[in-house]
Write a structure and sequence with these properties.
Blueprint lengths: L4 E8 L8 E6 L25 H10 L6 E5 L9 H10 L3 E6 L4 H7 L5 E5 L7 H5 L4 H15 L2 E8 L6 H14 L3 E6 L8 H5 L7 H8 L5 E5 L1
Parallel strand pairs: 2-3, 3-4, 4-5, 5-6, 6-7, 7-8
Antiparallel strand pairs: 1-2
Amino acid sequence: MTLRVGGLTPLSTTDWPGMLAAVVFCQGCPWRCGYCHNPGLIPARGESEIPWAEVMAFLQRRRGLLDGVVFSGGEPTLQPALPDAMREVRALGFKIGLHTGGMIPQKLAAVLPLVDWVGFDVKAPLAGYARITGDAGSGERAGAGLQLLLDARVDHEIRTTIHPALLDDADVAALAGELAARGVKRYVLQAFRSQGCGDEVLRRTATRARPLSALGADLAGLFDDLSVRA
């Protein structure tokens, strides 16, 4: 069993802040978030998967040039091959990053000891998750995954993609309150980006009436570190 890889970014300075990283995009995701900018990664099998052996050969050549490797998606924890893939990459000397929605808490728990940093996507106030993901019960599972991450004390950032048609400022304020109450210290608000999004309505309705930076200023006092990625 090998990791199903739907894409590979050879060098990124944004997917793991402060690090030079390659990004391995894992195929498959059970959620159907309308603003997803990688919809080709949602099916369990992709049209142009990259063999894991090729990924490893590439990483062999990048030893000493990259700081780490981020496993993104899709949803990486969906794949049983993820822990072994992380171990193989760490054996080459790379640090390990993970992008996840925390949707499978028991699988997240299995890989947290293998990672150095996690970018955790929180979609909405937990009671309203299904409106974003299309999956009943997703908020409860994501909340459990988030708590696992906070308890593990692995370096991380918590971030939320903001589309005005899906989350208004009151929704974001309610979510920020939930996160602060759980002990989240670093929170990132990131603007919806239309590139790759397959939902025409969302692409056409993305303009905010109020700058996202203003919303960030309203919420900054709840966290030790709040930033806005516009």
